[in-house]
Design goal:
The protein is of the alpha/beta class and 580 residues long. Helix content is 30%, strand content 22%. The chain has two domains: 2-47 and 92-339 and 385-400, Glycosidases (TIM Barrel, Alpha-Beta Barrel), CATH 3.20.20; 410-578, Jelly Rolls (Sandwich). The longest helix has 28 residues, at 65-92.
């Protein structure tokens, strides 16, 4: 009886919160049940169900999840490994995470699923049977409940298919010693059965936004490029996606289906014509120019085949790139899902998981060998890392969130924090905003287009995800970080509140091994200080304070620009004191 009551309550809850109807294709648009155009603004929960080495800093010595797990098990044993993964998954995504995403402005979540949380690998099945594991479904049910409570769409993404769907092994946890998805009929049957099971379970829930049936296939069927970028037919991929769609539709006539091409989702050669009326195309975009030309092929597909398109995955770049790509796709009525939610020491995501020194000991051992850490030391370290994945323990990145939402709408800057004058302003706390508005930096984005190599756009890789190069600060007077690698002509803008119009002395805290720097201050109303020379201090760790006098500020809000006429120094803070 209790189970029946809970089922009825669950059904009632679903009805109350499902008045918007299923997302569906209407020509070239994604709309809700009332026909309203829906622009998906989402985040992918990368690393929760499918670990990738770069997120845990175990790449390249352990990139796919099975290698990471083996490294851990070799240190702490099977029982402790199970304990770690239980804590890791329990802490990785919770209601608090989804509540936060909703507050920040996201209206959807993309869940990268690992098949092995829902069904065992084929080699563990008996007599060709397909059995089920409740863990993955329970995790999905909980996530769906949190999304529903926040009126957010949940997009189910098969990120790691049975056997693995790509030569980029970390993405799908592909074990090269076993048959891949494409080399095993049993794996393909299991994938089809999994999607049928998912469709049966969620067919009536309107907060399931779509089924993203296979993430980033990258496989050479007939071509020479191992990731399928030169494929011209993609026949096995199309055949499998058609079979999956058929299985889904046997259970679920309602939900939108996203498909992806080969070559990390972008090679659609041979995929057309489409085979379902309620379908949309997903593409992924990383490290290239944010011009209309960069998405023109997908725009052409949208027009030619009268089908919606969706930027199903993007990210891992600077805030400027984020703002530009979101502006580009939204201008073209294309929704998006960024990547990922959490990773260790992450400046390019909405949160960062804090690393502890003990974890570096494990990483060093895994990489180089040597003296093996004790099982007790390793277990405590890993459990602390798992605890650091809790939302209350991560570092939220307001600059990234600001770039993805507010900066798309305006070039106006916003205070990073409240700066009151008289008072001290740390250099890394310059305004929220984009290059040429909140700051000026010569290297502020990575396109990786001309050479295929990562361009050096942020040599600090700490604290913030702008072009400004920030490093940890070892000064005795510090708030943790300093602005470094300053070049001629760069600048920072600070929005401040001044209690009364006065003349101020400004204490400039800086260091410089050899170079002589030079800076001055300007305000938006035309006030300009004298220039001041910053003579070398003999070492980047030898800090000195120099006074810039006669700086006039008005009462109220002042936007103060620190202009670096000559770079080569490190800047800790500016402290404004009333002139005596």
């Amino acid at each position: 009886m209790t189970k029946l009551i809970l089922t009825l309550l669950s059904l009632l809850f679903s009805i109350v919160f499902s008045g918007q109807g299923f997302l569906r294709r209407e020509g070239q648009k994604i709309v809700d049940g009332k026909g309203n155009n829906i622009l998906l603004r989402g985040l992918g929960l990368g690393g929760w169900m499918v670990q990738e080495g770069y997120m845990l800093q175990t790449q390249p010595f352990a990139s796919p999840q099975y290698q990471i797990k083996q490294k851990i098990q070799d240190l702490i044993g099977e029982k402790n490994t199970q304990e770690f993964y239980a804590a890791y998954k329990a802490n990785g995504i919770t209601k608090r995470d989804i509540d936060s995403l909703a507050v920040w402005g996201f209206n959807s979540v993309r869940l990268p699923m690992h098949y092995n949380l829902y069904t065992p690998p084929v080699e563990a099945e008996k007599n060709g049977e397909i059995t089920w594991i409740e863990e993955g479904f329970t995790m999905t049910d909980n996530l769906l409940k949190w999304c529903t409570e926040n009126k957010m769409y949940l997009i189910l993404d098969l990120h790691a298919a049975p056997g693995g769907q790509g030569n980029d092994a970390a993405i799908s946890d592909y074990d090269t010693s076993k048959p891949s998805l494409w080399e095993s009929e049993a794996n393909q049957k299991k994938m089809i059965a999994l999607w049928k099971k998912i469709a049966s379970r969620y067919r009536d829930n309107q907060w399931i936004g779509a089924y993203d049936i296979i993430n980033e296939p990258n496989w050479n069927f007939t071509g020479e490029n191992k990731n399928g970028c030169d494929e011209t037919s993609n026949a096995p991929l199309r055949e499998l996606m058609v079979a999956v769609t058929k299985a889904i539709r046997e259970e679920d006539p309602n939900h939108l289906i996203f498909i992806e091409g080969n070559c990390w989702g972008n090679n659609y050669n041979g995929i057309f014509p489409l085979w379902d009326e309620n379908m949309a195309l997903s593409f992924h975009k990383y490290w290239n120019y944010n011009t209309t030309a960069s998405i023109q092929k997908m725009l052409d597909y949208r027009t030619q085949y009268n089908v919606p398109i969706w930027l199903g995955e993007s990210g891992e770049n600077s805030n400027v790139w984020f703002k530009d790509v979101i502006s580009l796709v939204e201008k073209n009525n294309i929704g998006w899902a960024f990547w990922p939610m959490k990773k260790i020491e992450n400046i390019a995501g909405v949160t960062s998981v804090n690393k502890i020194p003990e974890y570096d000991v494990l990483l060093k051992y895994w990489k180089n060998g040597g003296e093996k850490p004790s099982a007790d030391f390793a277990r405590k370290t890993l459990m602390k890392i798992a605890d650091n994945y809790k939302m209350e323990n991560v570092t939220v990145k307001p600059d990234v969130i600001d770039a993805m939402f507010r900066q798309v709408q305006t070039n106006n800057t916003k205070p990073y924090k409240k700066h009151s004058i008289p008072g001290k302003i740390f250099a890394f706390q310059y305004d929220l905003g984009t290059n040429e508005y909140a700051y000026k930096d010569n290297d502020f984005v990575n396109y990786r287009v001309e050479t295929g190599d990562f361009e050096e756009w942020n040599r600090g890789n700490s604290m913030r995800n702008d072009g400004v190069d920030i490093l940890p600060c070892k000064d005795t007077e510090t708030n943790g970080y300093q602005v470094s690698f300053i070049e001629d002509g760069e600048w920072l803008l600070f929005t401040t509140e001044v209690s009364k119009q006065k003349v101020f002395n400004v204490a400039i805290r800086y260091s410089s091994a050899k170079s002589e720097g030079k800076l001055h201050l300007e305000t938006e109303y035309g006030s300009k200080s004298e220039s001041i020379l910053l003579t070398p201090t003999g070492s980047d760790d030898n800090w000195k304070t120099i006074i810039l006098s006669n700086v006039v500020l008005n009462s109220g809000t002042n936007k103060i620009k620190a202009i670096f006429e000559k770079g080569g120094f490190n800047l800790n803070y500016l402290e404004f004191n009333t002139e005596k």
